[in-house]
Amino acid sequence: MPHRKPSRSLNIGIYSSYLQGFFLGEIVNQLRQLAIFKGYNVSVFRTDGHGDFDLKLGLDALDGVIILKNAVTVSFAELMLSKNIPVVSIAYDYFPLDIPHITTDNYRGMELAFDYLVNKGHKDIVFVGDLAQFDLRKRYEAFCELNDKIGVEFDETMLITVENSLLVGGYQAAKEFVARGCNASAVICAAGLLGMGFVKQLSSSGIELSSKLEVVSFDAIASMPVVAANITTVDTNLNVIAYRALSVLTQKIEGVDVEHTTLVPPKLIVAGESENNIEPYMATCVELDTFYNPAYMKSIVANIYEWPREIVASSLDEIMSIAPIFERYMGIGALSRIHMDRKNRKLIAVQRIFKHTATVDLELKPENIALPEKFPPEVLVIQGVRAHDTVVHFPIRFKEEIWGVLSMWGSSLKRANSSFLGFTGYMDLAVKMYSMNLEINAKPSVNAATSMEIGDEKKVVIKKTNAKVFWDVTSGDSEWSNEALELVGLESPMEKNIYKNADIYERIHEDDNQRVRDMVLESLDSLKPASVKARIKVKRSYVQATIQTEPDELQGGKVEKMTFSITLLDLSVG
Question: What is the pTM (predicted TM-score) of this model?
Answer without folding.
Answer: 0.85
